[in-house]
Write a structure and sequence with these properties.
Layout: E1 2-4, E2 7-13, E3 19-25, E4 31-37, E5 44-49, H1 52-63, E6 76-78, H2 86-99, E7 105-108, H3 129-136, E8 142-146, E9 150-152, H4 158-165, E10 205-207, E11 210-214, H5 220-231, E12 245-249, E13 269-273, E14 283-286, H6 291-310, E15 321-323, E16 335-337, H7 345-360, E17 366-367, E18 369-370, H8 379-389, E19 395-397, H9 415-428, H10 430-442, E20 454-456, H11 480-485, E21 490-492, E22 496-498, E23 508-512, E24 524-527, E25 533-535, E26 539-543, E27 551-554, E28 557-561, E29 577-582, E30 588-596, H12 605-613, E31 649-662, E32 674-684, E33 703-709, E34 711-713, H13 722-730, E35 739-742, E36 748-749, E37 753-757, E38 760-764, E39 773-779, E40 781-783
Parallel strand pairs: 6-7, 6-19, 7-8, 8-12, 12-15, 15-16, 16-17, 18-19, 29-33
Antiparallel strand pairs: 1-2, 2-5, 3-4, 9-11, 10-11, 13-14, 20-21, 21-22, 22-27, 23-26, 24-25, 24-27, 28-29, 30-31, 31-32, 32-39, 33-38, 34-40, 35-36, 35-39, 37-38
């Protein structure tokens, strides 16, 4: 922490052992810390720099970058432990279509497996899992299923038998031997120590399947064996995880129901080198020294298998993995979530705080169970959770087997309508989210490398100097200490500030708007709900209804969006683009957009190398066909969503610069003699690592809508109404419609629809190419900065 005149510092205490940390204020006002790990060496890394962002960037450079996730994994996921059959899951899919709800991922918990034996299917409950996945894939949806690290200790269970025969399981403490070690209730005895295949050489305890043993992921051989279950690599090793199924690793702390601490005994043994004892080459460690590493190694092995299955850096679909347990560097293997939470307002606030903490700790792709895993949230709480979680990186609803079904469309009205809007807005913003993920994975934007996708307000807020002078109408100044305490507010990237409503019955909230972090100039923010331009550095009071959540766009930014909402993100991947440009005081805004088909694993080698060692890439392969234009309400396309434009990839840089100028004065009093000229440029960057040019994007990709925040009608007198501007200045036939020249061509009237709104000038139904510069003149307008 820090960020003041003395700079910032961070400490990475690199221990996988049970660790206790005490923090308190010392006599001089500074922070004092006490660190205690149960064992192991003391590896400490000190990170420092002028600001907080420098520390976080260093942590990212030290521990690695995340992979580029498949686009669908950034959409909305529906999960519930009580989905126990194929008809139930197919019913959720059908209801989403029938009711018009966007949906990207469908999840299966432990009930999908025969007797909870992972890598199997319960044939009675799920008679045709491949057909189930094939039915949702053309809609752009994907299927995710669970595989925990414990294996049912039953000789006839072939996965367990293979691990036991190869001595790939965690061993019991030497003083206890095998058999009942770790049990506290006896279980049913099937496959237990004396009757097992390893003669008591594997630790046994209770978990979901009953008596179980745990894969020893500290063993390199066990990691390779587990990965091969997903990849099918290796002679005579059939793949047990289907290519159409994505992965979820749960219970991997690891959780042991019969353990004294609900986990493996501290003196359980792991093999870290050689064959298991009594081999002379064996090196074993006690679990107490590696507890926090166990789940991370399972996730690493799973991701390695999924990646090999996809053939990275060239091959099929990009893998997706979610893990409950993680360690330093786990961001290289996929997403994480905060585990089992509870349906309460306190837990809603805590979910945001935990995701923000994970982000600054190097784990950017994180989320929490929407609505709480335990309990039944009342409608207001569940709605507010949907609104909040729709602006966090991983967006999944999940609940306990005993909780009532809670698909969002089951909410009463008007809560359901507001939840639907939250899901639709999530999909509209996916181009922005996907670009942030590209920047995190590729290192294409050095200033953002290592920074989280969602950021606490204090990150990058500086800390020097006095609060700004308060302009007329502004609230009280915001000291930096207030940003540190605003632990449920955050920004998505640097440009969209979100203030979740996390208090029951709230009707008004006070939002602290940061002033620093805008390139040296004081930050300005535009209210997404009202369009008001607000000064950073002050508190802003905003009323909140049941359907609203305060959001603010940073002045000087461009947010790429897609306004057409489809039944899934992948069906919109080649749809036209909208740009929301918030002009700063100088009339300038800039933004970025990364485009590809959302799933192809045929990533450029440079990107794959960067994720391993820090390469740089700005654009990928090109060449594509157009995508379907089926609306959400339309019939599903009869082909896989990834078939159109597979392999395309391009990074577009958008810039808008507006300036006022005068022309011949109008005679109708409408301000027509006042003109704002805006230069909008959009060009694909050249690939810096591949040495090849960017080919054409699909013809369906163009800019169809531009919102220019900070551009207003010229007000002639106090009685002029906003609605008067269009008839007097921009009406068809008036000769005052905006004109555009593209690529230096002669000016021509701008087609489509032009509208003055409280948010700025809105240009719709455009067809502007993505690889040109557009020179647009708007008569009767003024920059309101």
């Amino acid at each position: 922490g820090g960020g003041g005149a003395g700079g910032s510092a961070g400490v990475l205490w690199l221990s996988a052992a049970d660790t206790y940390v005490d923090l308190w204020r010392g006599g001089g006002g500074g922070v004092v810390s006490h660190w205690l790990s149960e064992g192991g060496g003391m590896d400490v890394v000190l990170l420092g720099g002028p600001g907080d962002e420098d520390v976080v960037r260093q942590l990212g450079a030290l521990t690695g970058t995340p992979p580029l996730p498949p686009l669908w994994s950034l959409g909305y996921h529906q999960s519930h432990w009580n989905v126990k059959s194929q008809p139930q899951l197919e019913g959720i899919d059908a209801n989403a279509d029938r009711l018009g709800w966007p949906l990207d991922g469908l999840w299966l918990d432990i009930e999908h497996a025969q007797a909870k034996r992972y890598f199997t299917w319960d044939g009675a409950a799920f008679p045709d899992p491949r057909g189930m996945a094939a039915a949702i894939e053309p809609k752009g949806r994907r299927l995710v299923a669970i595989a925990d690290p414990h294996l049912r200790a039953a000789p006839e269970y072939d996965i367990y038998a293979a691990a036991a025969n190869a001595s790939l399981l965690v061993r019991p403490p030497p003083s206890r031997g095998g058999g009942d070690a770790g049990r506290s209730g006896g279980g049913d005895g099937e496959g237990g120590g004396e009757g097992g295949l390893v003669g008591g050489a594997a630790f046994e305890g209770e978990c979901w399947p009953g008596v179980s043993s745990w894969v020893d992921f500290l063993q390199p051989r066990a990691q390779q064996w587990w990965a091969q279950l997903y990849s099918g690599a290796g002679e005579g090793r059939p793949r047990r995880w289907p290519s159409w199924l994505h992965a979820w690793n749960d219970m991997n702390e690891p959780s042991v129901f019969s353990g004294a601490e609900l986990t493996l005994p501290r003196d359980a043994l792991h093999v870290v080198q050689g064959a298991p004892a009594p081999s002379p080459s064996s090196v074993e460690v006690e679990h107490r020294l590696v507890h926090n590493l166990y789940g991370a190694l399972q996730a690493a092995a799973t991701f390695a298998g999924l990646s090999a299955r996809a053939g990275l850096p060239s091959g099929g679909e990009r893998p997706f993995l979610l893990s409950r347990s993680f360690f330093v560097g786990s961001q290289r293997h996929g997403a994480v979530w905060t585990g089992d939470n509870t349906a309460s307002w306190d837990q809603l606030r805590l979910s945001v705080q935990m995701v923000l903490a994970l982000g600054v700790s190097g784990l950017p792709f994180a989320g929490a169970d929407v609505g709480g895993f335990f309990g039944t949230p009342p409608p207001e709480l569940l709605l507010r959770w949907y609104q909040s979680a729709s602006h966090l990186p991983f967006f999944r609803s999940h609940a306990h087997v005993d909780s009532p079904r809670r698909e969002p469309w089951l909410l009463p009205q008007p809560h359901a309508a507001h939840a639907l809007e939250a899901l639709r807005e999530r999909q509209r913003l996916l181009p922005f989210w996907y670009t942030l993920c590209w920047d995190a994975a590729s290192g294409a934007l050095p200033s953002a490398e290592g920074l989280p996708l969602v950021r606490p307000l204090w990150l990058g807020s500086g800390g020097g100097g006095s609060p700004p002078a308060s302009p007329a109408g502004a609230g009280k100044p915001v000291p930096r200490s207030a940003l540190l305490l605003a632990d449920t507010a955050f920004t998505v990237g640097a440009d969209l500030l979100v203030f979740p409503v996390a208090t029951k019955g709230a009707s008004n909230v006070e939002v602290p708007l940061p002033v620093h972090g805008c390139g040296g100039a004081p930050c300005e923010w535009f209210s997404v709900s009202s369009g008001a331009r607000l000064r950073g550095g002050f508190w802003h009071s905003e009323p909140v209804g049941l359907g609203s959540m305060p959001r603010y766009q940073r002045g000087g930014s461009i947010l790429p969006r897609r306004e057409r909402v489809r039944r899934s993100a992948l069906l919109a991947v080649w749809d036209p683009i909208s740009l929301h440009a918030a002009l700063d005081a100088a009339g300038h805004a800039a933004g970025r957009l990364y485009l590809d088909d959302g799933v192809t694993a045929r990533l450029p080698a440079a990107l794959h190398e960067h994720q391993q060692s820090g390469g740089l890439l700005e654009a990928a392969r090109a060449g594509a066909a157009t995508a379907p234009e089926s609306e959400l309400e339309g019939a599903p396309p009869q082909h896989a969503a990834r078939s159109a434009g597979a392999g395309v990839g391009a990074l577009l840089l958008f810039n808008v610069t507006c300036e006022e100028k005068r022309s011949a004065q109008s005679t109708d009093g409408g301000g027509g003699g006042h003109v704002v000229r805006c230069i909008l440029s959009s060009r694909p960057t050249r690939p810096l690592a591949l040495g090849e040019s960017v080919g054409p994007l699909p013809a369906s990709v163009y800019v169809e809508r531009v919102l220019l925040r900070g551009l207003s009608p010229l007000v002639v007198d106090q009685s002029t109404r906003l609605a008067d501007w269009l008839p007097s200045s921009l009406a068809p036939g008036s000769g005052k419609r905006p004109t555009a020249s593209v690529g230096g061509a002669a000016p021509r009237p701008l087609g489509g629809k032009v509208e003055a709104t409280p948010h700025g000038l809105l240009l719709e139904r455009l067809h502007l190419p993505c690889d040109e510069a557009w020179d647009i003149e708007v008569p009767g307008a003024v920059l309101d900065g």
